[in-house]
Amino acid sequence: MGQLRLPGFKRNCKVVPLADRLLGRMTPEPTSGCWLWTGSLSVSGYGFIREGRRGSKQVLAHRAAYELFRGAIPPGLFVRHDCDNRACVNPTHLRLGTVEDNARDRTLRGRGWRGGPIAKALRTSPASLLAA
């Protein structure tokens, strides 16, 4: 009786290094300089990639790019996008920061709950909406 073979799994399959997979799933965008992630995206627009074989841990693509090109990410720090593009994995567009730095960026760029159009709409009284 032969060995049990699962469909989709090859014997002695080669694992492609994370760096090669990362670089193979991005496309440079000439206008902004962003390296746009062409792999899987989360609902919120961040790219993600598996660390190794099928079934291994998924990591955010921009964090993997930062670690690959710039070094380890100290505990408690976030990798922030200077370009404000969640799908960007260009290491020159990425920087480390704290929760506070990230919140400040969000507010200054008008993207967040407190600084963006949603917050302004929520602060508008229903009476003023009807009057308009």
Features of the shown structure:
two-stranded antiparallel ribbon, 6 strands, about 130 residues, two-stranded antiparallel sheet
Main sheet attributes: strand count, strand direction, barrel closure: 2 strands, antiparallel
**Overall geometry:** globular
Strand line-up of the largest beta sheet: 1-2
How many helical stretches?
5
Low-confidence stretches: 118-124
- Given helix and strand content, the structural type is alpha+beta
Task: State the end-to-end CA separation.
Answer: 79 Å
Number of strands: 6
Order of helices and strands: HEEEEHEEHHH
What features would you describe in this structure?
- The protein has a two-stranded antiparallel sheet with strand order 1-2.
- It is an alpha+beta fold and 132 residues long.
- The chain is 30% helix and 15% strand.
- About 5% of the residues have low confidence.
- The chain starts with 17 loop residues before the first helix and ends with a helix.
- It has 5 helices and 6 strands.
In short:
The protein has 132 residues and is an alpha+beta fold.
Q: What is the element layout, followed by pairings?
A:
Layout: H1 18-24, E1 26-28, E2 35-37, E3 48-50, E4 58-60, H2 61-69, E5 78-81, E6 94-97, H3 99-108, H4 117-123, H5 126-131
Antiparallel strand pairs: 1-2, 3-4, 5-6
